[in-house]
Design the sequence.
């Protein structure tokens, strides 16, 4: 889902950068308020951790392997969608500048897709569902929705860029990510959250630990 | 060839004219090349000619930097799939911003190949190649900590500089951890494609590894925080990036790039 340079016209990339910068500023504000001075080492280490997590191969349907995005997991555990925005921004900058995975001019668009949309959809869908279907089901749905909706937004961005027709883009991107998202994001988010709850429940934000699914 | 974080950092430790340049100048050069490439017209054959010249200039810089050609090719190949996929599909689809199409070939199932789509796809791929090559050149000739320090000197806020400078250090810690996890899994004959064990069990193992990585990074953050407190760290602490002067050869390289872009724009 990492859009590369050249796929979105320069004028539109500036708009996405502006949107991303607003959310990055808000996420720094969240970090100052919620994490205080502990934020820097914590977020730096978590950013590096998410970077490594994204490099782990996950077997997905169609005989290929995929990678986790991690936005929903980060937002649920740290109890804020802004945590996902900040962590994904750190990861996407390193991926774009060091690996060339996702471009420089389009980095704003990628941050909007994976950090903002992924984080907000993941966090709010989890919170909407956790009391009714429990933490496991809610984290599965949150992980799946975060990557599925982010892929649809990516398709819309490519449509506005003139790079891909809307219906075909929504169909290809949506269908592909709907399928790989079941395993690559949904299941893995649910398993990882369960494991973390079992080992270090204190790490998971109190906001995310309510409802009938709480096992800790 | 499989490229890891270590390979990229190892290349950046070489000695050459480009490796020794000021990080700020290299970052600005990369930015100028990318912005110019992206800003070019998307439906003009001349754009491809301009991008080819720009790409050859980047290849010349890669040769000057003494980078391993196999390594460079592998780096570009790794970054290519999404851009290549989108570009290759262009001749077969109707771009929303193009009003008239010239059909070149009729294929079965009503699929057509259009001249405009072919040109657009070629331009996209050329832009993508130039931008990826520019990033590969930058990251292969600049150490990560220099990139962070250069970004700070160019105006990156102190808070983000501190975050990136620490994250860059931990990237290697967690990359190494990931490698150890993979080695440990291999010694237990763990294979994500093993058909003899239930798929569910494989996914559980991956989920466990991911939760382990997450917790280890969280706990690393806690440990580092207490260690930093012992060294008088506070919320107002900043990264010391040191002083570095831009010298004549930096100006020369930057001017050469700007002049080349000017020539490409007005002579082609």
Sequence:
């Amino acid at each position: 889902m990492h859009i590369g340079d050249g796929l979105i016209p320069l004028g539109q990339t500036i708009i996405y950068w502006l949107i991303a910068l607003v959310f990055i500023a808000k996420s720094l504000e969240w970090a100052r308020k919620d994490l205080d001075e502990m934020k820097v080492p914590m977020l730096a280490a978590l950013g590096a951790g998410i970077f490594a997590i994204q490099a782990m191969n996950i077997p997905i349907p169609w005989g290929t392997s995929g990678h986790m995005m991690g936005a929903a997991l980060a937002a649920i555990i740290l109890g804020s969608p802004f945590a996902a925005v900040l962590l994904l921004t750190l990861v996407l900058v390193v991926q774009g500048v060091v690996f060339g995975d996702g471009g420089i001019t389009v980095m704003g668009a990628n941050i909007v897709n994976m950090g903002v949309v992924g984080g907000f959809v993941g966090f709010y869908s989890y919170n909407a569902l956790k009391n009714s279907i429990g933490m496991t089901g809610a984290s599965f749905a949150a992980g799946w929705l975060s990557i599925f909706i982010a892929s649809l937004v990516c398709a819309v961005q490519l449509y506005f860029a003139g790079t891909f027709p809307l219906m075909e883009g929504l169909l290809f991107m949506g269908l592909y990510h709907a399928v790989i998202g079941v395993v690559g994001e949904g299941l893995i988010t649910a398993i990882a959250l369960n494991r973390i709850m079992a080992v270090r429940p204190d790490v998971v934000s109190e906001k995310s630990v309510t409802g009938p699914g709480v096992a800790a | 060839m499989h490229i890891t974080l270590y390979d990229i950092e190892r290349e950046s430790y070489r000695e050459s004219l480009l490796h020794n340049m000021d990080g700020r100048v290299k970052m600005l050069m990369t930015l100028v090349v990318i912005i110019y490439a992206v800003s070019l017209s998307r439906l003009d054959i001349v754009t491809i000619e301009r991008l080819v010249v720009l790409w050859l200039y980047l290849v010349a810089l890669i040769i000057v930097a003494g980078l391993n050609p196999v390594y460079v090719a592998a780096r570009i190949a790794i970054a290519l799939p999404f851009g290549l996929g989108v570009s290759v599909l262009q001749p077969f689809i109707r771009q929303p911003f193009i009003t008239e199409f010239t059909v070149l070939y009729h294929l079965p199932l009503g699929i057509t190949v259009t001249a405009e789509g072919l040109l657009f796809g070629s331009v996209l791929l050329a832009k993508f190649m130039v931008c990826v090559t520019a990033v590969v050149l930058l990251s292969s000739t600049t150490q990560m900590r220099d990139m962070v320090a250069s970004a700070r000197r160019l105006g990156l806020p102190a808070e983000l500089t501190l975050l990136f400078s620490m994250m860059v250090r931990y990237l290697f810690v967690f990359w190494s951890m990931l490698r150890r996890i993979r080695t440990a899994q291999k010694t237990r004959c763990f294979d994500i494609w093993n058909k003899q064990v239930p798929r569910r069990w494989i996914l559980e193992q991956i989920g466990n590894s991911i939760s382990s990585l997450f917790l280890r990074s969280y706990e690393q953050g806690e440990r580092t925080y207490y260690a930093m407190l012992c060294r008088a760290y506070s919320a107002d602490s900043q990264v010391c990036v040191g002083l570095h002067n831009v010298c004549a050869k930096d100006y020369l390289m930057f001017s050469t790039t700007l002049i080349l872009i000017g020539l490409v724009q007005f002579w082609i």
Summary: The first helix of chain B runs from residue 5 to 12. Chain B touches chain A through 83 residues (CB under 8 Å). Chain B has ten helices and two strands.
